[in-house]
Amino acid sequence: MFTEIFNELLEEKQINRKQFAEQSGIPYTTVVGWTNTGRLPDFNALVKIADFFQCSVDYITGRQKNIEGSVFYSAEISPQGRTLLNGFNKLDQQDKDLVLKLTKRLNKK
């Protein structure tokens, strides 16, 4: 279960295992161990992963069925806001930059 969820999070963030390792500070060999050999992360690694992907440890371990516990998915965000965030996270960097520019322009009005 962990491996599938971890791989989905990597895909959503559009990064690979090596990029995750570099950005999170977790050794690449450890990340490969999780995804290739089925080893599970220890508690400290789970917390780092949750912080990195801004979700709960429960989500990463499969105890929570959706990512609702995430910082981005707090109760203060409307369903439309959640839809926007999900869509935004799937964009490539060039499109993200374009959306951010447009948002800044619209907020000046």
What are the key terms here?
single chain; 109 residues; mainly alpha; 2 domains
Provide a concise account of the structure shown.
The chain has helices spanning 2-13, 17-24, 28-36, 43-53, 57-60, 79-89, 93-108. By secondary structure, it is mostly helical. The chain folds into two domains: 2-67, 434 Repressor (Amino-terminal Domain) (Orthogonal Bundle); 77-108.
Whole-number tally of structural domains: 2
Described by strand count, sense and barrel closure, the largest sheet is: none
Assembly state (oligomeric): single chain
Approximate strand percentage: under 5%
- Give the structural class: mainly alpha
Distance separating the two termini: 46 Å
Please write the string of helix (H) and strand (E) elements: HHHHHHH
CATH overall fold name of the largest domain: 434 Repressor (Amino-terminal Domain)
Shape descriptor:
elongated
Total of DSSP H or I helical runs spanning 4+ residues: 7
Q: What is the CATH class designation of the largest domain?
A: Mainly Alpha
Number of DSSP strand runs: 0
The CATH architecture of the largest domain can be given as: Orthogonal Bundle
Indicate the low-confidence ranges by residue numbers.
Answer: 69-75
Indicate the radius of gyration in whole angstroms. Answer: 16 Å
Helix content, binned percent: 55-70%
Mean pLDDT: 83
The CATH homologous superfamily name of the largest domain equals lambda repressor-like DNA-binding domains
Task: Describe what this molecule looks like in 3D.
This protein has 109 residues and is mainly alpha-helical. It has 2 domains: 2-67, Orthogonal Bundle (434 Repressor (Amino-terminal Domain)), CATH 1.10.260.40; 77-108. The protein has 7 helices and no strands.
